[in-house]
Design goal:
Layout: H1 2-21, H2 25-41, H3 45-61, H4 65-81, H5 85-101, H6 105-121, H7 125-142, H8 145-161, H9 165-169
Helix pairs in contact: 1-2, 2-3, 3-4, 4-5, 4-6, 5-6, 6-7, 6-8, 7-8
Length: 180
């Protein structure tokens, strides 16, 4: 499997050369995000972080707000993976502001879930529960069953961590879910 991931890096680097040669800033941002994902999968998280930071800057300069926000979210996840939780949360809060500014409720929902995960990693369980609850409300408002399932499962896990096992049991993605 590592061989395939290494091959992916070769293709991304070839693509990077092409987009840089043609001055395609948006294409370069996309390639940088792909390199970030590839390096993260290879366990080279610091290198992934560098590529995601570049992608964020390139998307910002290209005025592609969705790309900027999505990569801030992924950058936050990478930072959290190496224990840099305050920095992770700061990046994800930037992503949330962008998602709201472009009125994209599905992106906002995904960002809220990411924020909740970082808050949970930081043992800020009540805040994490609130973030997942806001994500659940958004998922239901836009009819996103996957987002709803992710939010409900996250809420159940958080309640379980708090020792609220009976409350946690009531959170499932079944049709008999609790109202929020």
């Amino acid at each position: 499997m590592v061989g395939k991931k290494q091959r992916a890096l070769v293709y991304y680097r070839q693509a990077q050369e092409l987009v840089e040669a043609h001055g395609d800033r948006w294409g370069e941002a996309v390639v940088r995000a792909g390199l970030g994902a590839a390096y993260f999968q290879l366990g080279e998280t610091e290198t992934a972080i560098d590529h995601y930071r570049s992608a964020v800057e390139l998307f910002r300069n290209a005025k592609v707000s969705y790309g900027e926000a999505a990569n801030l979210l992924t950058l936050g996840a990478c930072l959290a993976a190496v224990g840099r939780l305050d920095e992770a949360l700061a990046q994800e809060l930037r992503a949330l502001a962008i998602a709201r500014s472009i009125s994209d409720p599905r992106l906002e929902e995904r960002v809220l879930l990411g924020i909740g995960q970082v808050q949970a990693e930081a043992n800020r369980l009540d805040e994490a529960l609130a973030s997942h609850g806001r994500a659940l409300t958004l998922a239901r408002s836009v009819g996103d069953p996957l987002g709803e399932t992710d939010a409900l499962n996250g809420m159940g896990a958080l309640l379980h961590r708090q020792g609220r096992h009976l409350d946690a049991r009531s959170y499932s993605s079944s049709p008999n879910r609790p109202a929020t």
